[in-house]
Every structure is written in structure tokens, then in C-alpha cells.
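Appendix C reproduces, verbatim, an entry submitted by the partner laboratory led by Prof. M.T., so that reviewers can inspect both the input and the predicted structure.
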Amino acid sequence: MLLTNDDKLLFKSDNYALLLYKDDLVFQIDGEEYNLSSQPYEPCLYISKDDKIIRIIHNSFTTDEIISSIEDGLKISAITGTLFDTHMICELLSFTINNSFYEVDLGYLEKRFCSSHIAELSDDVSYNEFKKYDACVLNYCILKIDGSYNYEQSHKEAVLFAMRKWHALLKNEYDLDISIDKSKMKATQIDAKDFFDVSSNSDGSIAKSYLDMFLNPPHGTPYTVEDFNNLNDLLFPNGFDELDIFDWSTDWSNYFDDGNEWWGARCVSIYDKSLNRFVVIGASATD
């Protein structure tokens, strides 16, 4: 495609490009070009190739929203509650084009998209170590991401993946259905040194500290600070300097209801840049 002075390159990365060509929004990937369009009266995004619509994403964002977000340097808040930056939009478009569905809802697409980018490291040796601490009420989930790390949004996807896993476990054991309201999910970044601190029972948050939750569940444990350190040394073998940690609110799922009633609830996502993996920790317990 030969650009003229009236055309505009909006975004370019190693794999993708978005540009305005003769007032049309064009997505480029692997040498192929796709036209993007939408209607002002419905939140649908149409993907066309050679003047033929090949994919339709319902409850999506419009082309005007995409263009404005790029020009203003902002993320788009989708109807699902997910925040999309430009690279994530391109990843989503690529995923949609490379799959077989003709029409798809954005909510369903997000679940498929996230599951393709995040996978549990179920064979990680840490899971065997967890079995030694069966009196501990903390839930752990170790995840690998395939693709770019998109900071808080990637943390959110990791937390939702972990919650789906814990939902399956609770459903099987207690026949409990987990409800989720993603619009209520709020995150605060916290310092790694504070989070893993063993010199006090506070890590700077208003919730119970990580150490306190490990050592002191409702019915107690025989574990020590040494156990706490050994487990975290296994989870984070390269230390804490390369960790991004987000502390999540606990009002967005009934998973946290028991803990919010009395003992406490916690949800923390930790991304280890040196290993390109997440550890998600959840806690909710009562007497």
C-alpha cells in the first residue's frame, strides 16, 4: 500500500500496523491488509478482506473509538469492562482473523483470547511443595503468558484465569458457583519488599499481610517464617527485584464472601519479569 499525504500511520509494531488509508481504518499483519468498519448505531466491528466481510465482533468498539484511543494515547474500556491498549487490540484482531468463527461476541472472544495467551504451569515443582502446607488456606496458581506483557491488564487476565480454576475446585468440592463482577475489580500496585517483609505483620496494605495469612489461618498452622521464606524462594528463585505486584479488591466475587465476613480475604497477582510468569495468590476463609 502506497501512502499519500492524506493517509496516516497510526500505530506500528514488529507484527502489526494500523493506518488511515483514504479515510478507512486498515489493519496490517503478515503482509496482509484488512479493512475495519463499524456502524454508529451498534457496537460491532467488521473485518473485511477484498471488500468482503470475513469477521464480525459484536459488543465491540467502533473504529472511531480505536482511532481516538491511539491519537489520545488512552485505552478503550470495552463493554466487558476490559481495558484495551493498541497492541492488545491488534492481538485481538489477529486472533479473530486466525480463527474460524464468522460472528463472535467480544465477551466470548476475550475468554478464548485469554485462554490462548495464558496457561497454567501445572507441572511446576512448586505445586508439590504446596502439598506440605495443607493447613494453609492460601490458594496459588502459577501461569505462563504467551505474548506481550500488558501490565495491569495482563494481571487482570491472570487473576480471572486463576479464579476460573478455583471456581472449578469449589464447584467440585462444595457445589459452589462463583460469581464475578469484573467492573468492580480494582488494583493497587504494592512494593515487593513490603509484601514479603517478615519483620512485621504489615505489608503496607489495609488487608492482612501475606505472612500473617500464611502462618495464621482461622485454625492455626505449625508453620514458621522459615517455611514462608522457603516457599517463596521456590516460587521466585531470582529474587524480588523483577516482580510487579498488584493487590486486588475483594468485592468483585463471592469467592471472597467468607473471608470478608470475618478472618480476611486477599487477592494478589505477581508477575516475575525474569521468568515471564505469574503467581496469583487468593485467600478467603472463616471459622
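The mean pLDDT is 86. Additional entries are available on request from the coordinating office.
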